[in-house]
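> tool_call: predict_assembly(chains=three)
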Amino acid sequence: MKITRNRILTLITLVVFAGFLAYSQATFNPYILRIMNLCAIFTIFAVTFNLVYGYTGQFSLGHAGFAAVGAYTAALLTMTPVQKELNFFLEPIVPVLANVQWPFLPAMLLGGVLAAVVGFLIGWPALRLRGDYLAIATLGFGEIIRVLFVNMQRVTNGSLGLKGIPEYTNVYWSWGLALVTIFVTKRLVDSSYGRALKAIRDDEVAAEALGVKLSYHKILAFTLSSFFVGIAGALLANLISTIDPKVFLFFLTYQVVGITVMGGMSSLTGSTVSACLYTVFLEALRPVESPFSIGPLRVPGVPGMRMVIFSALLLLVILFYRRGLFGQAEFSWDWFFEKTSALRARLGRTGKTAPAPSIESEEEERP
Amino acid sequence: MPTKKLFVPLLVIGLIASLVTACQPTPAAKETPAPAETAAAGEETTPEEVVIGVYEPLTGAFAAGGEFTMQGVNLAYKQKPKVLGVPIKLVVVDNRSDKAEAATAMARLINQEGAIAVVGSYGSSLSMAGGEVAEKAGIPVMGCSPTNPLVTQGKDYYFRACFIDPFQGRVMAKYAVEELGVKKVAIIQDVAQDYSVGLAAFFRKAFIELTGDASGIVSFTSYQTGDQDFTAQLGATLAAKPDAIFAPGYFAEAALLAKQARELGFKGPILGGDAYEAPELIEIGGDAVEGIIFSTHYHPDAELSPASKPFVEAFEAEYGERPSAFAALGYDAYMLTIDAIERANSFDPAAIRDAMAATKNFPGVTGTISMDENGDAVKTAVILTVENGKFKYLTTVSP
Amino acid sequence: MTLSLFFQHLANGISLGSLYALIAIGYTMVYGILRLINFAHGDIVMLGSYIAFYGVVMFFLPWWVSFPLAILLTGVVGIIIERTAYKPLREVPRINLFTSAVAVSFLLENLGLVIFGARPKGFHRPPVMDTVLYIGGAAVVSYTPIIILTALVLFGGLMFVVHRTKVGMAMRALSKDIETTGLMGVNTDQVITFSFALGSALAAAGGILWAIKFPQIQPLMGVMPGLKAFIAAVLGGIGDITGALIGGFLLGIAEIMLVAFMPNLAGYRDAFAYSILILLLLFRPTGIMGEMEPEKV
């Protein structure tokens, strides 16, 4: 009974959400659409980071590197041969890549697959390492990938970057893939694999004693996460239509860590909400950087204030709200009804519902 | 957990509130609902104010460059706060030295703030990201100092106030060969900066063309932005006994590189490009940068244009220091934009674009500027050296 | 390669290595005791050099007053950071401590940007450290021996503190087992705070010496040295002070020699450092000096 009701509700929200996407793609201005796309891309980053960190307990800092692999693959495959020739004006592009041009979907998928392959190759040896060592090893791998991309001028155009990548990314692609990522991750962590992952997170030694194959499960989570990070990288490349190795500095990874910690470990709802919050907040906080007046007091604009506020907020969450915004809680319809009925009871009125964050409905996207 | 009960709803409220503020057009944008409509309005009724956007890296790795540029832009805005009798609202947004953010910043300027023209950005990679957005929206952009040829390539709406790397590379190669009599040169590039990689490549090409001797490049090596130790590269480089070192990079690394080269006993000239020109080059480099030679856009003594001297005086009065090349270009980029609006006699972005493209012999502080068919400024370069802790004018090179 | 050129490279390598070593020691000390990779360490390096800079430029202190004062003040900042950002997290999984360190690093960098401004500032070398000496055909600036000497003296002093004093004994005990040490009547909080102050002071010393060698300071200057020093600390066996010293020198010399012998690979220099790190982690995670630590159940 309840399950059918929930399924129907999910379906309805999905349809409503799809309608909302169609509406926004048609009517919103490019600025809002760009923010929405970035929200989705950061959602993928955060959810995949959470899969490895929150659910499996492995602290990996290789996100920027995997995103770079996905982004460059998709970019080089979707660019027109003419654009490539224009781009590689210092040194010619390797002949293999010069004349290929793929549609977006296969290019993006290959980007994901290559990122997954790199992820597998890195994860296989590195996941033997404990906690903080793994973090450093993966951070190092991410940086190595970036340094390679800077120096492989005939493949990546080095620091000159790539320009004129077709702008395929729109809200259907980005949010569609974000939903797929959430769905796949959710299914994985709820399966027997997921229980194994959580066991590894909670106590590696005990999990191994109980017969959980440590490296198999770790690599599985890691590779899957790399795949989706690669996809997100491809979305990013085809959104901003120009990339260079500096896009993938480890600063990108730090941002993802911050977002995920704020949202709460082992909460996909948290990661999603937090990713959207982060992207929107940074834009909404822009006024603090330009001069403004409070009554007669004129405050000069201080560039950099946004990031100070963000990092201070992050620190506060870590210190005083250790579990993040959602902890391990997930949005579910049962929870939703429980809350609303409790609220109704408290208000003593019927028919009043509180806004609630949800993975599927994305209430917060509605301006 | 009572706190949690409060926290999540509060958060959601905050989120919605921030979205509302983010999505709400600012008053300026309300007055000029869409750029296209502004034009029509501009011809019939005069708007209360027009918005000119600036997007610069004010935080992150390029923040210093953004700060320099803003000095120039702010001074120019102070001198010319009105165009066609209408007050200008200058909206400055930070792009965090981040490509994705640069694109978003540009979209914000155009869609939220209603900018009719945009100035920026320092860093070619950031300019490329913003350029794509501006091109689609049909808003003209005047770049200050992005010298990578790719920036304006295939873009109808992107212009720049600076010359581009191929020209600058040629200028320096020519000067090295013809004036300094350099036969053997070593190149040290910053492999992480498109500016440096481009300049190094064009210098190399021009040098070989001029001397006809490919072995004249005795060493070609790299470092990465953020490196502070160049002794390894220099050791290997100096072993090849070059007459001169060409190290196209930014002033901060250049000052350290020069210092270390001198400490290792190198006596020959060190050559560079316009990114050398900042007071910090001398402040950091001290004695070691004496005799450094680089190409840049202007010098008050060069009398390239009547505007140079008053600019330097006004700048020194305002900030108490000498302007850097980036500040001067920021000033020129703003003035070029105003000039284009005045010549177009309209606030229509397309008309402004046409006027920008038709810029001819504009008396900028960095020289007399004309736009070529790509939207790149065609102007003379000057060659400077450092003498007694001051930049000294050597010669002028025409394109 | 001539012999004198080789010596030149070696001198450059040792000079760079001693800086890595000094910063790595601070890293390793905090790790040894708290098992925390203090990601903010590089930014404390930045802070130290800025305080020293402002001491000279703004308060007109002579350098020999300003530098020790900066070291002291940075030590105090270290205490504040430890008390606010790390102490409350002592009981929770270590990974939270790590993210807290990342947040502190973020905050320091952005605050630095807002307060100090993004433009790099020229750091004035005291004249005594600014003359070029020629030793056996290699050009060496006088700061080089001073840096190496300072690094060794500070290392010696630290060894004395750790091995010959009561608080040092407590520190060593703490690094083995915090709980038991607490039960033995040691005020663990105070000892941890002390080692943090010491680590930060060393970072400040490293930062000042760094600014003397590379006289240019800016808010993100600590990132690269921080990462490199961390690699050096792992190389030597993280948690081991002598190891950090050796690791620092090794990494400095190796980096210089790579570029010296293979100038074409200069662009790959950072990748090289990380490759060393990863290979080491895979084959000998405990580094050169570290002892194998059985996994606790």
